[in-house]
What does this fold into?
Amino acid sequence: MVIREAGLLFRGFTLVKKSYHKTTLGKIDTDLRSGLLTALLNFADTAFTQNTIEYFEGKKFVIAFINDEITAEDSVNPEPLVSYAIFDGEKKIDKYIQKILKPLLTNVASEFKKKNERKNLSEVSQFKDFKEILDQIFGSDTQNVDQKLKGLFY
It folds into this structure.
């Protein structure tokens, strides 16, 4: 399975997003998509038992996520921090999410919190260096078969 995109959401906005492969033909407003995903997650938490929804599966892609919490500079209480990944849908998704993706997403949230707990999270340009950490965490899971083979032989 190939991870096409990964990122972090906070208060309905994208803090960090790294695209590895295109998932759409046109341009999509990042804030609009982040708001929609956050609304879906909030609905799922309200309608179902909290933290029972781990992914949304479509015909082509799957969006997996984990919920964590972070305290911003302007807040007294911790607020939801969502780490997500979009990847190709295939068989045995549950197994892939549990064994591979969930630990990676947990690591993403943990690394972000280490660097940004109790900081101002409203200026997202300060997080662009975190994309390198996403690259390190996801590594070869972002490469398709051709890219992996090319890396072996060149």
Summary: The mean pLDDT is 85. Residues 3-153 form a domain with the Beta-Lactamase fold (CATH 3.30.450.70).
